[in-house]
Amino acid sequence: MIDEIMLETEEKMQRAVNGLHNAFGTVRTGRANAMVLDRIKVDYYGVPTPINQMAGVKTPDAHMLVIEPWDKGVLGAIEHAIMESDLGVTPNNDGSVIRLPFPALTEDRRRELVKQCKEYAEEARVAIRNARRDGNSHVAKSVKEDNLPEDEQRRAEAEIQKLTDKYVAEVDAVFKKKEAEVMEI
């Protein structure tokens, strides 16, 4: 029973770290990255569709994304969706592809992005601590209901704390790496 609780707790913590990786993928750095388009949905015949499911996205150089839709009739819709998003890039539509030029980031914009990354990292830490709290309460409940010894509870709580420390350290490492990437000129 305790082993199941430990596995479930670790899974929740791992999901928090994976969510952080996904959130960081959408943060624009100085380089063009196709993941910044993942959040943008295009109205495709009444269905909100991600751009990468309706077009090929290429990066010909470090500061340019090229979106080539398979159905040329959605060029305008893709362009409109990008304009409506908070991407901060103006698309260039030439009738067959859309080019997204990514200008170099200013110092202020870099600081804003680092602040946004800090918020994402803090959300991941909170999720990890919530998983710890849930795990500890499940252990306590299990000890009470199954008449397990209290030293079993203390041992399980110590293991859960080790997991918490491990995943919080992983969040901190991922944040430091992303911060360096954003601040790199």
TrEMBL record:
PANTHER family: MITOCHONDRIAL RIBOSOME RECYCLING FACTOR PSEUDO 1 (PTHR20982:SF3), RIBOSOME RECYCLING FACTOR (PTHR20982)
UniProt family annotation: Belongs to the RRF family.
Protein name, per record: Ribosome-recycling factor
Assigned GO CC terms: cytoplasm
Location, primary (coarse class): cytoplasm
Gene giving rise to this polypeptide: frr
Keyword Metal-binding (UniProt): no
HAMAP family with a match to the protein in the record: RRF
Pfam family, one: RRF
